Amino acid sequence: MTAVRSKRPDRAGHQLTHLVVAVILSTAVGAAPIPAFGASHWSTGSPTRLSASAAPKAACSPGATRASQGVTTLPPFRHCTILEIGDSLGTDLGEGLHLQLEKNPSITLVVKTTVAAGLTNAWFYNWPGHLKKFLSQYRPQLLIVFLGANDEQAMVVNGQATPFDTRAWRSKYASNVSTVIKEAAAAHCVVMWVGMPIMNPFGYRQKIQVINSIFSDMAQKMTNATFVSTWKFMADAKGNFRFNARVNGQLQPIRTADGIHLSYMGLNVLATYVVAQLRLHYRLALTPAYPVNFTR
Residue 94 — φ and ψ, nearest 5°? Predict the structure, then answer.
């Protein structure tokens, strides 16, 4: 896999935790060890070839068509560029995808994420404007979107500050989501929109559900978009938030103390899940390098 990544935000003290987690997981029966997080995982600069020894089995290309069962058929192509965009949670997913896709030489992964960026604060970071540049620069065939954690706030609509979840707010937010998907379509790129996971803070959790519902509705209306929910996947069997879960046979932390972000184990669980969804929805012959799955 070839990788192009934004600079990883600093997480002081996490390197030791990641190392310990990797060592613990490597002792699980049947589990491939996950490399510990290091500074080299996130850097800026030119694409770096990570693996190119095997011939690609399948990839993707423009001109996708959606089948009736929810599978998007992508014509065969020898190499596929995947662009992932998002906020700080998108950075978490990008880190996991970088690791889980590193043994797939037919894939170029480009991660472009910005902390605190969303679709309600264009004054801070205008995603449609930046996305258009990324689409032109990297020419991806598939766009993964994982953002929304910062969007439970008022937004300027027609020059007026508009409260969250009002009719005007929902209409404008849906329009912003639509703009992202349409920009991808104009660049002959399909979109996998990954929904936000269940959150621990209760009031915040309810607002994220509102945002996810708009993502889902807009993806269903656009022929080049697929919505992938992560809410139930990251919840426990009763649908409740959980900080810890059994992963590859051992109890592990999957969320950070804020009840919002993903731990190193959690982001790898989610990335393994997203790789499976890429196989399911786009028939891509992808294999996670270090599969991390929930177990009983």
Answer: -60, -40
Give the DSSP per-residue string, 194-258: EPPPP-SSHHHHHHHHHHHHHHHHHHHH-TTEEEE--HHHHS-TTS---SEEEETTEEEE-B-TT
CATH of the domain at 42: 3.40.50.1110
Alpha-carbon distance of 115 to 289, in angstroms, equals 27
Portion of the chain with pLDDT greater than 70, in percent? 75
Q: Residue 160: inside a domain, yes or no?
A: yes
Could you tell me the residue range of the domain that residue 71 belongs to? 2-282
Q: Does residue 234 have a pLDDT over 80? A: yes
Measure the CA angle with vertex 188, ends 187 and 191; round to 5°.
95
In whole angstroms, give the CA distance from residue 72 to residue 283: 8
Angle between helices 264-282 and 88-100 (to 10 degrees): 70
Amino acid symbol at 116? A
pLDDT digits (tens, 9 = 90+) for 115-167: 999 999 999 999 999 999 999 999 999 999 999 999 999 999 999 999 999 99
Residue 137 phi/psi, 5° resolution?
Answer: -75, -45
The neighbouring-strand residues paired with 32 are: none
Average pLDDT over residues 223-247: 97
How many domains does the structure of the chain reveal? 1
Q: Is residue 293 part of a domain?
A: no
**Per-residue pLDDT tens digits for 195-210:** 999 999 999 999 999 9
C-alpha span between 116 and 62 (Å, rounded): 31
pLDDT tens per residue, range 86-109: 999 999 999 999 999 999 999 999
Q: Cβ–Cβ contacts within 10 Å for residue 52, how many? A: 11
**What six digits make up the tokens of 49?**
């070839």
